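so my prof wants the structure for this chain in the C-alpha coordinates format not the other one, which i didnt know existed until like an hour ago. anyway here's the sequence
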Amino acid sequence: MSIPDVDVTAVPDDGVLLDVREPDEWQAGHVPGAVHIPLRDLPGRLDDIPDEDPVYVVCKVGGRSAHAAAWLNSIGRSAVNVAGGMESWHAAGRPMTSENGNDPVVA
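here's what i got, hopefully its the right format
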Protein backbone atom coordinates (compact mmCIF):
# COMPACT_ATOMS: atom_id res chain seq x y z
CA MET A 1 0.00 0.00 0.00
CA SER A 2 1.37 3.38 -1.01
CA ILE A 3 1.39 6.04 1.68
CA PRO A 4 0.79 9.56 0.41
CA ASP A 5 3.40 12.03 1.57
CA VAL A 6 4.04 15.71 1.23
CA ASP A 7 7.06 17.97 1.63
CA VAL A 8 6.98 20.16 4.75
CA THR A 9 6.82 23.28 2.60
CA ALA A 10 3.55 22.05 1.05
CA VAL A 11 1.68 21.56 4.34
CA PRO A 12 -0.94 24.33 4.40
CA ASP A 13 -0.83 26.77 7.32
CA ASP A 14 -4.44 25.87 8.14
CA GLY A 15 -3.97 22.10 7.72
CA VAL A 16 -4.63 19.72 10.61
CA LEU A 17 -1.25 18.46 11.80
CA LEU A 18 -1.11 15.32 13.94
CA ASP A 19 2.18 14.87 15.83
CA VAL A 20 2.75 11.23 16.86
CA ARG A 21 6.05 11.73 18.73
CA GLU A 22 6.65 10.95 22.39
CA PRO A 23 5.80 13.57 25.06
CA ASP A 24 9.44 14.61 25.65
CA GLU A 25 9.91 15.19 21.91
CA TRP A 26 6.69 17.24 21.78
CA GLN A 27 7.70 19.39 24.77
CA ALA A 28 11.10 20.21 23.23
CA GLY A 29 9.53 21.63 20.07
CA HIS A 30 6.36 21.28 18.05
CA VAL A 31 4.15 23.05 15.55
CA PRO A 32 1.76 25.57 17.14
CA GLY A 33 -1.80 24.24 16.92
CA ALA A 34 -0.77 20.66 16.16
CA VAL A 35 -2.68 17.80 17.78
CA HIS A 36 -0.37 15.62 19.89
CA ILE A 37 -1.18 11.92 20.17
CA PRO A 38 1.79 9.58 20.65
CA LEU A 39 1.74 6.72 18.15
CA ARG A 40 1.08 4.08 20.82
CA ASP A 41 -2.04 5.97 21.96
CA LEU A 42 -3.49 6.61 18.51
CA PRO A 43 -5.99 3.69 18.33
CA GLY A 44 -7.65 4.77 21.58
CA ARG A 45 -7.75 8.49 20.78
CA LEU A 46 -9.31 8.67 17.33
CA ASP A 47 -12.00 11.02 18.66
CA ASP A 48 -9.25 13.55 19.47
CA ILE A 49 -8.33 13.92 15.78
CA PRO A 50 -10.31 16.66 14.02
CA ASP A 51 -12.64 15.39 11.28
CA GLU A 52 -10.99 17.53 8.62
CA ASP A 53 -9.36 15.75 5.69
CA PRO A 54 -6.60 15.26 5.06
CA VAL A 55 -4.75 15.01 8.35
CA TYR A 56 -1.02 15.69 7.99
CA VAL A 57 0.93 13.28 10.22
CA VAL A 58 4.40 14.13 11.50
CA CYS A 59 7.06 12.57 13.74
CA LYS A 60 10.80 13.22 14.06
CA VAL A 61 11.97 11.99 10.64
CA GLY A 62 8.98 10.29 9.01
CA GLY A 63 8.97 6.63 10.07
CA ARG A 64 6.37 6.64 12.84
CA SER A 65 4.20 9.12 10.97
CA ALA A 66 4.26 6.89 7.86
CA HIS A 67 2.95 3.99 9.97
CA ALA A 68 0.28 6.23 11.52
CA ALA A 69 -0.79 7.62 8.14
CA ALA A 70 -1.03 4.13 6.65
CA TRP A 71 -3.13 2.92 9.57
CA LEU A 72 -5.42 5.97 9.47
CA ASN A 73 -5.94 5.50 5.73
CA SER A 74 -6.72 1.80 6.30
CA ILE A 75 -9.58 2.71 8.64
CA GLY A 76 -11.08 5.23 6.27
CA ARG A 77 -9.43 8.50 7.28
CA SER A 78 -7.54 10.63 4.80
CA ALA A 79 -3.97 10.97 6.13
CA VAL A 80 -0.76 12.21 4.55
CA ASN A 81 2.75 11.61 5.88
CA VAL A 82 4.91 14.72 6.29
CA ALA A 83 8.15 13.66 4.60
CA GLY A 84 11.27 14.29 6.67
CA GLY A 85 9.28 14.95 9.83
CA MET A 86 10.05 17.66 12.33
CA GLU A 87 13.73 17.64 11.37
CA SER A 88 12.77 18.85 7.88
CA TRP A 89 10.12 21.18 9.34
CA HIS A 90 12.75 22.84 11.53
CA ALA A 91 15.32 22.99 8.70
CA ALA A 92 12.72 24.69 6.46
CA GLY A 93 12.20 27.41 9.09
CA ARG A 94 8.53 26.57 9.60
CA PRO A 95 6.95 27.81 12.88
CA MET A 96 7.71 25.93 16.09
CA THR A 97 7.13 26.46 19.78
CA SER A 98 8.10 24.61 22.98
CA GLU A 99 6.46 23.95 26.32
CA ASN A 100 9.64 24.11 28.37
CA GLY A 101 10.37 27.82 27.93
CA ASN A 102 13.46 27.17 25.80
CA ASP A 103 13.98 27.81 22.12
CA PRO A 104 12.18 25.01 20.26
CA VAL A 105 14.35 22.15 19.06
CA VAL A 106 13.69 18.82 17.40
CA ALA A 107 14.15 16.02 19.93
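also thought this was worth mentioning. Strands lie at 5-7, 16-19, 35-36, 55-58, 79-83.
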